[in-house]
Amino acid sequence: MLRKAVVDDIAALKLVRSSVVENILGDPSKVTDAEYEWFVKNSGVAVWEEQGGIVGFSAADPRQGNIWALFVTPGFEGKGIGSRLLAEACFCLQSAGVERAWLTTDPRTRAERLYRAAGWEQVGDASADPIRVALTSP
User: Fold this and answer.
1) Which site in 19, 20, 55, 102 is 20 to 30 Å from 78, CA atoms measured?
2) DSSP notation for 105-131
């Protein structure tokens, strides 16, 4: 089930973020509770609930025109959850008037395949790690 996150969800969002096996944060302490709270309160974070808990979330940053986060707990991939969360993040950016959205992701990952299947194209340095992808009119 898709819904908007609330501040009380932040601990669960952090658990989802730390559970992934691709696009792993080098230093999780660099992403603060204050950042999560800003996204929940201002741009809206979409969460996917299943089996009584949050198993995925996305967050878009209309200030920068990018998707700040999109993560799905291992074991729940391949069920369309990521695609649904991506659509919510794109809707947030589109509603804010963003004409060209961007994000970064590690190359050769499920995430990269998801974005490319949704029409995102790599921009910038082709050998970069992480890579930057963009979508016109999200």
Assistant:
1) 102
2) E-TTSHHHHHHHHTT-EEES-TT-SSE
pTM tops 0.85: yes
Burial code (b: 16+ CB inside 10 Å, e: under 16) for 74-106 equals eebbeeebbeebbebbbebbeeeebeebbbebe
Nearest to 83 by CA among 108, 119, 44, 53: 119
Q: What is the pLDDT of residue 62?
A: 94
- Does 26 have pLDDT greater than 80? no
Give the chain's mean pLDDT.
Answer: 93
pLDDT category at 128 given cuts 50, 70, 90 is confident
Domains delineated in the chain: 2-98 (3.40.630.30)
- At 135, list the tokens: 């979508």
Rounded CA separation 64/33 (Å)? 19
